[in-house]
Amino acid sequence: MEVINAIGRRKAAVARVYVSEGTGKITVNRRDLKEYFPSPILQFVVKQPLTTLNATEQYDVKVNLFGGGFKGQSEAVRLAITRALIKINPESKPALKAEGFVTRDPRAVERKKPGRPKARKRFQFSKR
Predict the structure, then answer these.
(1) CB contact at 8 A, 96 and 86
(2) Least buried of 15, 27, 50, 97, by fewest C-beta within 10 Å?
(3) How far apart are CA 78 and CA 7, in angstroms?
(4) 26-28 β-sheet, strand order
(5) 109 CB-contact burial (10 Å; exposed 0-12 / middle 13-18 / buried 19+)
(6) Is 127 helix (H, G, I), strand (E, B) or coil?
């Protein structure tokens, strides 16, 4: 089987994923998944699409990640893995869509507005 690639984005994070048949090894930026994401919750988030399809031991995943924080990065990887799995087997899409993994989360940081300290916060009002 050839290598299937896909891209996932979340907030400022971008994940490029290369999925091939293998033993279930996940490598992120040339490091092991457990080393890159020490938190078990983030490891769980990354593996969710594979767990849903009972395919954790079937594919090797290589990930190139940049931008964003660890939470955004883990969700970007999840979306990229989901897209790659759909390319491999289009019949798996309904199961992944039911879990909500197919949808790109559009929420991002709102820009700072001029004359304000943050995006929506205002400076303290002084009557006198």
Answers:
(1) yes
(2) 97
(3) 10
(4) 4-10, 13-21, 59-66, 26-28, 31-32
(5) exposed
(6) coil
Calpha distance 113→90 (Å, rounded): 43
pLDDT at 27: 93
What share of the chain has pLDDT > 70, as a percent? 99
Segment (H or E) for 89: none
- Cβ(61)–Cβ(81) below 8 Å: yes
Contact 7, 76 (CB under 8 A): no
The structure tokens 């849903």 sit at: 52
CB 13 within 8 A of CB 6: no
In the predicted model, what is the mean pLDDT of residues 117-124? 94
pTM to 2 decimal places: 0.90
> Tell me, what amino acid is at 64?
N
Return the pLDDT at 1.
Answer: 63
